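Appendix B. Extra example for self-study. Work through it before the problem class; the solution is given directly after the inputs so you can check yourself.
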Amino acid sequence: MDLSQAYSMMMTDLGATLFLLIVAVSGLVLVVFDAFKPRHVATPWIAGLALSAGFVIEMMSIGAPEGLAWYDMMRTGGSAAFVNSLVLGSGALSIILTVPYLKKIGHNIGEVYAMILFATVGMLVLGAANNLVTVFVGLETMSICLYILTGFVRSESGSTESALKYFLLGAFSTGFFLYGIALIYGATGSMEFGAIRIAAEQSAGVMFWGGVSLLLVGFLFKVSAAPFHMWTPDVYQGAPTTITGFMSTASKAAAFAALVVVLWKALPAERWADVLAVFAVITMVIGNVIALSQQNIKRMLAYSSIAHAGYVLVGLASGSQAGYSGALFYLMVYTIMNIGAFGVLALLEWDGKEGSEQTLESLAGVGYRKPFLGWTMAVFMFSLSGFPPLAGFLGKWAVFAPAIDADLVWLAIIGVLTSAVSAYYYLRVLVVFFMKPEGENSPMAEHSFDIPRSSAAVLIACVVLLVVFGVTTFALDVTSGFFAADTVTQFLG
Amino acid sequence: MTASILFFVLASVAIAAALGMLISRNPVNSALWLILNLFCVAGLYLTVNAEFIAVIQVLVYAGAIMVLFLFVIMLLNLSVLPDLKRIEWRRIIAFIMGMGLLAMLMFIVANTLDMVPDPVTLQVAAETGSATSLAKVLFTQYAMPLEVIGILLLAATIGAVVIAKKKPV
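Solution. Structure tokens for the complete assembly:
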């Protein structure tokens, strides 16, 4: 191929992945801008606008047919555009919540926004990957930025500790992941999903399945599924709260999206259904049961996010098109709920204490003192536990129903039972917020804290979205069109 | 024939250098042994026509990373470890022979189970190992991952500065 042809192809591909270009270039611009004008007000604006622009572009291309770009390295349109807009939307909302939070904790550094943008670049590449090379590069870009975002509050020992833990364990899991890719490449001679599947259907030996297992370990670590979940509570508790909201949603959505595509395009699903079902059961049980005994809300939400990873795995275990698209719908609902819940928690850190120290007791009676936060939190908690009018219920239906269709009734039953257990710890938050009297020496008695309008707008938006997606099914209809059987044959060509 | 003689000479020097690095009592000597090892591995790459990787091996590992090692050694001011009073040669020889036997047995087992992959012939390597062919692939087919790796390295550098700078912000 001559170079001018490659050049014109590159221009076409840049057009197809314009959102990625916008986010990456804005990140680079921010780094330079922050060096000349440190802590400038425009820094978060640039980041937020870049993410919003990308979000709008990707929202408009959800309806577009699925395609490939960058020499079949990335997918565009359809499900890829859906995941991209999920990641970009989560990033934009997190930036709005992060601005007042960083000012409050006195760590208003411009690099944080650049890091969020770079992490988003990694997630976009990961979520839209069509090749193990892109998966790995995206995963690493995302992870490195998240390690830094976890640990930038250096005055807080919890933040540093969690960053170190995250980094060491994350590097370890990266080793598993890379080794898996190497073995799969050795067995099939390709890193492109479609080619892997063709090679695997012809001959799949020990080397191939060993590679797939290692790859799966790497993925399950990143989505914090049990038994690879150990880092999650510490990291979610220690990281700055709005950053926790960002990484618990966007990074999980991107990693799950990549896993879905790997299962869908590269591996024959029937071989993996049982394995994933076992992981789903372990994850749901461990996440929900340990969450029952948590006193710190951030830690409790961390275990709840492990449990939610289990629910998504139920959808994947069904191995059907409905299960995969249901998982994507669930990830969207989960993103909205968790951004909101962590946003409320970030606002509740009024006394200078990091969320790592804030226990349930210290929040007693806050629902009457700050009714806005109390009621929005109530919506998020009801949705997380899956009460019907809200989107959390529809999301659970979207992942459990395909499992029943795939004859995994026992799995769906365990899922429903564990989510019944989860109602206890979600509703306990509301009991503490509304029914416990404010203690005599309650730390919030002498503090007044106001809610920034921007954060309030984000919380209201999350509530509205949860209600809208809960009572209407148009989002579910959009996702259920993804991963249709004819697209996979089209890819395999 | 010449190629395989070259291979065995380079490989044995590389192994000897690696051993020298491990058992040397002086950290600077260890680092110098490692440089010899890296050069030998670069030579091995040359014997399979992977010129580009050989050059990169010398430039990046033997050059940049070793300078970093030496700086760390000098900054940490590591003292020379005291000599062991008595080296138990019998144990060392027994260990080497045991490992050799194990390697031989494992090779035979792997060979009979047909698990040893066929070596890449020199013809294939000549097509894929040169800088030109690598660059062609890297800047067309893998251009997007390459650019994202650029962002990854930039983010890691910035993050290291943010986390490690003296005055916390």
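Self-check: The first helix of chain A runs from residue 3 to 16. If your reasoning did not lead you there, revisit section 3.
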